[in-house]
Amino acid sequence: MYKTHFGLLEDPFSITPDTNFLIPTQGYQEAFNTLSIAVQNGAGFIKITGEVGTGKTLLCRKFLSDLGPEYVTAYIHSPYLEPQTLLLALADELAVPLPDSGVNNNQHLLLKLLTQALSEIAYQGKRAVLCIDEAQAMPLLSLEALRLLSNLETERYKLLQVVLFGQPELDGKLSHKSVRQLLQRIIFQYHLMPLAYDEVGHYLSHRLSVAGYRGGPLFLSDAVDVLYRATRGTPRLINILAHKSLLLAYGEGSNQVTKSHILAAVADTPAARQPFWRFWGHLP
User: Fold this and answer.
1) Rounded CA gap, 122 and 97, in Å?
2) What is the C-alpha separation between 240 and 129, in angstroms, rounded?
3) What Cα–Cα distance (Å) separates residue 17 from each residue in 60, 62, 232?
4) What tens digit of pLDDT does each residue of 33-66 get?
5) What is the pLDDT of residues 111-155, one digit of tens each?
6) Helix crossing, 197-210 with 221-231: angle to 10°?
7) Following DSSP, what letter does each residue of 202-231 receive, concatenated?
8) Is 240 within 8 Å of 15 (Cβ atoms)?
9) Residues of 171-189 as b/e, b for ≥16 C-beta within 10 angstroms?
10) CA distance 66 to 41
11) In 3D, which of 157, 174, 158 has the Cα closest to residue 166?
């Protein structure tokens, strides 16, 4: 709607996890380095946590897309699955051929077929990596089934490496006594934080540039201040408010986003921190 007005080629603030818009902030780079080092070392379990909207799915997609041909990858984005269904989802991701009948109700047979497939991947000199998004939603029994599958290993590394991406509630689930063995097997972990105050302006400029914007500063400095106050650096909220403020600026025929545009967008967004100035404190 406003792309032509601002000279944009695409929507700069979509909330879909488009890896073209990933900006290498300190947090993202540290998380990405953690993932890279972990898989290179053949770690069994890796854990990435972060609050809602901090970009875990985007990081996961980028990580998977950057893995080389020496890796066979699997991605499960809705892990609220019972153990058998979770294993079937993994088999589907790895393109494991399954018999027409019997396997759905036979966990032993399914595990045997998965073991054969993972062993074949290792025989080809490759490594299998499974990324599970929204891992805090996994039932405890499914986490335990995953741990048992991760027992498979060569003399040098695990046949299956598992990366758990989840909200902080995942830590509470992993502290449960029934999955304490899995907790001990998490070798690498990272907690993804929201953007710092001085990263928000760079974040906006980066996404606008990727979307084709070539003009001067589009978001005024006081607008960026209010944007940070309202979102505390959460990328998803930043995208929502930035998109709404661009719509408001376009509607007024303005070529810049002002503080008033951000405040109007905040008022229309329940998840944003409303402008009760006396509670917002000083920046950053």
Assistant:
1) 17
2) 32
3) 9, 9, 20
4) 999 999 998 878 999 999 999 999 999 999 999 9
5) 888 989 999 999 999 999 999 999 999 999 999 888 888 777 766
6) 110
7) HHHHHHHHHTT--SS-SB-HHHHHHHHHHH
8) yes
9) eebbeeeebeebbeebebe
10) 17
11) 174
